[in-house]
Amino acid sequence: MKNHPKQNYRYQTSAFLLSLTIATFSTPLINSSVAENESAATLSARLEASEKKIAALEKKQADSAASFNNNSTQGVAGLANYIDTSLVIVGTAGGSSAKNDDLPFLQPGGHDPKRNGFSLNQAELSFSGNIDPYLRAESHFVFHEGDGVETEEAFITSTALDRLEIEAGYMLTEFGRINPQHPHQWTFIDSPIVNTRLLGAEGMRAAGIRMAKILPLPWFSELHLTLQNSDGEFMHSFRSGGASAHVHDEAVADESEQTDETEGELSIGGLPSVATSTNSLNDFVYVLRTDNFFDLSDSLSFKMGVSSALGPNSSGNNGSTILYGSDLILKWLPTNNFRGYPYVTLQGEYIGRNYNVDNNNPEALELSKRHIRDSGFYTQIEYGFIPSWAIAARGELAKGSGDTLIALNDDEERVERSRISSLLSYRPSEFSRLRLQYNYDQTDYLESNSHTVWLGFDIVLGKHPAHNY
After folding, report:
1. Residue 252 class from Cβ within 10 Å (0-12 exposed, 13-18 middle, 19+ buried)?
2. Cα-flanking dihedrals φ and ψ of residue 136, to 5°?
3. Which residue range(s) make up the domain with 29?
4. Do 316 and 343 share a domain, yes or no?
5. pLDDT tens digit sequence for 6-51
6. How far apart are CA 344 and CA 389, in angstroms?
7. Alpha-carbon distances of 319 from 155, 268, 275, 364, rounded to whole Å
8. Helix (H, G, I), strand (E, B), or coil: what is residue 443?
9. pLDDT in tens, 368-400
């Protein structure tokens, strides 16, 4: 450990004074005749020289201490301005028994592989760092194969508030377990069906502000309150206009043609999107989430979350959507683990949606009911049996109900479907992973059930921002 500059110069000053004292009092004993012949003027000159040396040492000591303090302060500021950069690449190769044109239905996620052969799911370039002792910034830009670049997230986060965190900017909505995560965090190569249907293919995200507060409870409990724009491009269940619904029956599609202002844009159930604007606090989406973490034992932990979101939808000024969900994760990690193995992780999530159609929507007059309901869940379990190796299994179900302009079995976003998946993964290091995944899909939307196999890889280059548990 290095000595503090103040300590070094104290030692030097003390040593000099000690040497001066020894020299002064030992000289007469060694050579008394010389001492007796020294004039008072010579002794006075020596004393004056010694005082100057001591003053010079004290000044040097003070300057060094000041320099040390300044450098320490500048060092904190300097570190605050460093930028951590990382690149994450996720790619796949594989194929399906389904036709290539049907793969976008089987793989609806924006970062899912959607073709037989090779796919670049995404390349994510991230920047993060401290702005100053009070704020931190983070941004993620995603490169899609053939689709250019998009901003996935760009926000600032407070770092100096006690038990309170404020985040502002463009960000993934804090809803559920999967939505706030980036694709390389997922256990499986593709996103769950229910997430893509109710939260959007790219995940629910928009500009807004989020506050997180750690509650004073005996266990770890965090409350999240988020306010976001409802008309963002990726606010699927709200005012984004929904997806351009894909239907098998062309006659049904012709009956759902849009006006000039909204041509090509359909909201949930084939209803035309109505142009709206943000005029009041009622035009935002409000999201509430709570996370609760428990240590059940030295080797067993449990985390449970509950989420809800409320906001206007694109069926009209009086249309509204309610999203609700719950998620859990149970993890077993023995105290005598080696490099984090073995482990068992059980994870599940349920999401529901009530889509309330505006009564003034002219197309809604044909509906017997104005409430469209959709829901779904997934459950998965992962077992890391030896260092670097793990196996996993997942089961999913998604379905819809309610009267819409498109027959339920012809609406790819609401038709009932289930999927079973298995996975083998290998991690050579924390910066790379290989995954072999099999999917079995069952649905009335396609002529037959489908078998799909994907071989995926992902790598992390550089210092990537830390992820939540």
Report:
1. middle
2. -130, 145
3. 5-77
4. yes
5. 444 444 545 444 554 554 444 444 444 444 555 666 666 777 777 7
6. 12
7. 30, 12, 12, 11
8. strand
9. 667 899 999 999 999 999 999 999 999 999 999
